[in-house]
């Protein structure tokens, strides 16, 4: 069983990944991203989906759905526009869920 | 606490005692599971945080490199250079069982073994900055995959911890006290029945003695 890795985000941030052999999908604010993203998640051909923080902020609900599913792993990465701290917030969310409060607060 | 109605019989009593026994044992096991899960989770989440900080920094640099590369090339050249990638990355996922949570283990495989296949373009028309940019991104990839593995594991474990904690609490604060209360109720009722039988017998004995001997 051999799956691929997808990268979802705005063009500027993700086109470099194509060179490495990852599948890139461009996030276009003008289009229906939810449907595109859902298709990506349900296609079963991707076990890891990297998504830029900027794009993720539009798709929070969809990402939330896959948190407790074993596959795919949806991982937030900072885009070219900079780090918004969303990725770390996702880690915090896990801690809060498990422990009850964020004990790594600094 | 509102006691659920139970039949005050010996059969019910022994059934409830068995139930309490199972519940207590289950509670102890689940508590152990929760503690161990929590220990592993904290270990993993620490690693997750460290790795994320590292990866985010590396990605920031890679992105900066790409911006730099773009500035010295035309959009078309860049697009053409990255249009047809030579390399492909495959992932095979296996699962490792940690305290009944299936956490993923990703193993990557590339289509060609040559690490230079990430440069999908001729070097004539592109700037050296692009090579650097692609290289810096390729260097992040192993860490990025490791991050995906750990972060997903953390998410799944957090979910399982939440579930286990609920079960532990339900057993500890609802199931076990309720059963204990029911057992107490039945014991009291049975004792009361026994006392009343005793008194009745004594009364009857008195009455019979009265009849026989005229005490």
Task: Describe what you observe in this structure.
The complex is a heterodimer of chains A (106) and B (215). Chain A has 106 residues and is an alpha/beta fold. Chain A has a single domain (4-81), classed as 3-Layer(aba) Sandwich (Rossmann fold). Chain A is 42% helix and 22% strand. Chain A has five helices and four strands. Chain A has helices spanning 11-20, 33-42, 53-56, 60-65, 86-99; strands at residues 3-9, 23-26, 46-52, 73-77. In chain A, strands 2-1-3-4 form a four-stranded parallel beta sheet, sandwiched between helices. In chain A, strand 1 (3-9), helix 1 (11-20) and strand 2 (23-26) form a beta-alpha-beta unit. Chain A is globular, with a radius of gyration of 14 Å. Chain B is mostly helical. Chain B has a domain at 31-164: Helix Hairpins (Orthogonal Bundle), CATH 1.10.287.3240. Chain B is built from three helices and two strands. Chain B has helices at 10-71, 75-81, 128-213; strands at 89-98, 101-110. A two-stranded antiparallel ribbon of chain B has the order 1-2. In chain B, strand 1 and strand 2 (101-110) form a beta hairpin. Chain B is rod-shaped, with a radius of gyration of 36 Å. The two termini of chain B are 50 Å apart. At the A-B interface, strand 1, helix 1, strand 3, strand 4 and helix 5 of A face helix 1, strand 1, strand 2 and helix 3 of B. Strand 1 of chain A pairs antiparallel with strand 1 of chain B, so a sheet runs across the interface.
């Amino acid at each position: 069983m051999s799956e691929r890795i997808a990268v979802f985000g705005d063009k500027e941030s993700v086109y470099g990944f194509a060179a490495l052999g990852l599948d890139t999908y461009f996030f276009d604010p003008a289009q229906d991203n939810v449907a595109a993203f859902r298709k990506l998640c349900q296609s079963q051909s991707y076990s890891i989906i990297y998504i830029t923080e900027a794009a993720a902020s539009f798709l929070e609900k969809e990402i939330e759905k896959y948190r407790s599913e074993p596959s795919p792993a949806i991982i937030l990465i900072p885009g070219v526009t900079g780090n918004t701290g969303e990725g770390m917030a996702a880690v915090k969310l896990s801690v809060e869920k498990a422990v009850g409060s964020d004990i790594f607060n600094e | 606490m509102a006691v659920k109605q139970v039949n005050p019989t010996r059969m019910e009593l022994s059934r409830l005692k068995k139930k309490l026994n199972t519940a207590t044992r289950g509670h102890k096991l689940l508590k152990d599971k929760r503690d161990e899960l929590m220990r592993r989770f904290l270990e993993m989440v620490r690693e997750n945080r460290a790795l994320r900080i590292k990866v985010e920094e590396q990605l920031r640099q890679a992105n900066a490199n790409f911006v730099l590369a773009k500035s010295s090339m035309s959009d078309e050249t860049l697009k053409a250079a990255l249009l047809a990638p030579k390399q492909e990355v495959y992932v095979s996922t296996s699962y490792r069982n940690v305290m009944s949570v299936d956490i993923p283990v990703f193993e990557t495989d590339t289509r060609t073994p040559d690490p230079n296949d990430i440069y999908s373009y001729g070097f004539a028309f592109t700037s050296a900055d692009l090579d650097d940019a692609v290289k810096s991104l390729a260097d992040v990839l192993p860490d990025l995959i490791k991050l995906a593995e750990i972060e997903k594991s953390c998410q799944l474990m957090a979910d399982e911890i939440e579930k286990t904690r609920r079960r532990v609490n339900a057993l500890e604060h609802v199931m076990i006290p309720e059963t204990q209360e029911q057992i107490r109720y039945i014991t009291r009722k049975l004792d009361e029945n026994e006392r009343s039988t005793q008194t009745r017998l004594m009364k009857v004995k008195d009455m019979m003695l009265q009849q026989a001997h005229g005490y």
